[in-house]
Specification:
145 residues; MlaB-like_STAS; 6 helices; alpha/beta; STAS_dom_sf; Transcription Regulator spoIIAA; five-stranded mixed β-sheet
Amino acid sequence: MTTASIDFGQSNGWSTVALHGSLAPRDVAVVRDRLLRLVAAGCRHLVLDLSGLERCDAAGFAVLIATRRHLASRGGELRLVLPAPGTPVRSALSAFGAHQVFDIHPTAEAAASDARPAAPLQRRATAREHGARASVLGAIPRQRG
């Protein structure tokens, strides 16, 4: 497996970032830093194309969550393109709940040309408010219903 490589672009007013290779522990810090610097530099609409990933673990998924949260805190939106169905990365992202958390599109072009506005983030109750232990996904607000 290769280390992560990142390609940047623009389409229909959206910044596009394609990740290739591995989004595993040794690559996470570099990818997280580059994505968060992009948001800090003013990016508000980001399409993250993961179709070229060969590996993504929980640490990689946490980078996706952090990026979405940083964008949302600045009034922005993150859209994802997942790898092909049946691939190990698609299976892992599905197991992590990517479809419940992110706005998923079949291609970067489709994501950038989707004119639907971002759905408002919905606040989820915390475990303390329910007096119970919340699941990891239960604590993450969804972008679209």
